[in-house]
Specification:
The chain is an alpha+beta fold. Helices cover about 20% and strands about 15% of the residues. It has one domain (about 15-165): 2-Layer Sandwich (Muramoyl-pentapeptide Carboxypeptidase, domain 2), CATH 3.30.1380. It has helices at about 40-50, 105-115, 140-150, and strands at about 20-25, 30-35, 85-90, 120, 135, 160-165. The longest helix has 14 residues, at about 40-50.
């Protein structure tokens, strides 16, 4: 099976890699992510919404997760979005390549949250910055350990509902509601 840049299974068929749609607590936004990493990405998004800035809910569809594609500007490297292990938040406010779209205080909180959830932030990339982008940078065993350590085991009663992806609904960028 094809792998994304971070080594996770990637596929144009979301069902083949267990992509689910999860609501971000405190919002109406639902993101499509890999089931195994959902607690980390959704937990991060909820904290981002509370502590950094509200996730834009203007229906502009500038928040997303799973999307099968190559890394922007590459013909060979498969994006981490293709494995459901990356999310972009408030993309229109933090466009690819832009620097300084967050305040210094927000950057401190983002870095703290990334340490908590063991994510890599595109704002810390050495070359082309991607301040909207947050990704898993661990293998499956490490992810499971972090999830257990944070007490974020997948519990349906805590996260309203998990909807297995299907060809009906959501599109490649996800959905704000079902």
């Amino acid at each position: 099976m094809e792998k994304s840049a971070n080594g996770w299974p990637a596929s144009a068929d979301p069902e083949a890699i267990d992509i689910v749609r999860k609501r971000v607590p405190g919002t109406d936004l639902k993101l499509r992510v890999a089931e195994r990493v959902a607690p980390l990405l959704i937990g991060f998004a909820a904290d981002f919404h509370k502590l950094v800035e509200p996730i834009d809910e203007t229906k502009t569809l500038d928040d997303w997760g799973y999307c099968y594609r190559k890394v922007r500007g590459s013909n060979t490297v498969v994006s981490n979005h293709s494995s459901g292990t990356a999310i972009d938040l408030n993309a229109t406010q933090h466009p690819l390549g832009a620097v300084g779209t967050f305040t210094d205080e927000q950057v401190q909180v983002i870095n703290r949250l990334c340490r908590k959830y063991a994510l890599r932030w595109g704002g810390n990339y050495r070359n082309r910055k991607d301040e909207m982008h947050f990704e898993i940078a661990l293998n499956a065993t490490q992810v499971e350990t972090i999830i257990r350590g944070l007490g974020l085991e997948n519990d349906e009663s805590e996260n309203e509902q998990t909807i297995k992806d299907s060809s009906t609904g959501g599109g490649v960028l996800g959905s704000r509601s079902t």
